[in-house]
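Homework help board

Subject: predicted structure for assignment chain

Our instructor gave us this sequence and asked us to write out the predicted structure in token form, then describe one feature. I got the tokens but I'm not sure how to describe them. Can anyone check?
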Amino acid sequence: MFKTTKMHQMLAAAALLAALPLGAAAQAKDPIKIGLVSTKSGAYSAMGAHVINGVKFAVDEANAKGGVDGRKILLAEGDDESTPDAGRRAAEKLAREGHNLLIGPIASSISLAISQNLARWDAALIGTISKADKLTQDACNPRFIRTNHSDAMDLAMISEWAKTLKGNNFAIMAADYVWGHDSAKSFEAAITAQGKKVALKLFVPMGTKDYAPYIQQLKAANVDAIWVAEVAGAIPFIKQAADFGLKTPMIGHAVVSDFIINATGKLMEGMPGNVGYTPDIDSEASKAFVAAFKAKHNRLPSDTEAQAYNGALVLFQGVALAKSVKPEDVTKALRGAQVDTLYGKATVRAADNQMIIPNYVARVKTADGVLRPVIEQSYPASIAPAASPLCKM
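My token output:
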């Protein structure tokens, strides 16, 4: 009797196992728990909405295809409030709750505040927007991977592009924090190397709303063009510059961005500047992304949405390469790896965890029925400067 009952139990268990999907029959893999730390309030909230859209699109797309390496992706969000302290707190909360694969900060100061705590939280951070060189120089971290252009990469391109800039006398208006100072320093070096000069440098504190004092100085400087490296306040600055009759041409560093263009109407038409992504990029991955995004949202993706999406793709590949969701395993797997990106195949440089990708100069003009950045010149990834000896990993 005992043997018969035992046999029936075994047969029933076997039948149940056979009825289950193959994935359920195997031991379930740990999910990929992502902590999306971006800006929902404060100076970068408009840009933050685009970062959030891009990451969510990547997560939804991957989950619809069955996840990554058989793992479902779980997303939790935190608001960095556009400040380093709030960003650090939001990231720590997410990491300690298990969402320790972090992505999404905009300001370099916020990424720096998070990066220096990654080992303590057992977390990793994928940088998709922050450009400050410090992140991959003396403050580099083996748990931090940057998938966007650094300032050094931008300025290597701009050093070439500067040879074609008209005029001999320039002004700089930059954000008064690490990224803005890096940008100003690098642009001045590029211009003076051409025998040209910078007559005026202005640094704008975070949260500035009244740009009149800066605009008056820029008008009085009577320069040929203004280098603008001010993202958080770009929208009010451009609007107020028009109101006060500032006619001097502007060149944008991270300013020729869809969310700024959309908020300023035609005021930026004709403005040149570097750009991290546009739908003009002619790779198969970019074409597929644009088509899928347009099918869902009935519009083209912004540069910020695309860069956030691209960072998420790299994170997913890190999980697949590592066959693990442990943050240290993921970043180790990515270090030195060649990955698929919206730009084509790209390498995450082992010396500093900077992904090496082509770079672009665009101009704001109408294309595809909308005013947006349109690429005018592309520069190969090979012009990226070597890793800084200050990075010790």
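Reply (TA_rk): Your tokens look well-formed. For the description, you could write something like this. Residues 1-26 have pLDDT under 50 and may be disordered. That's the kind of observation they're looking for.
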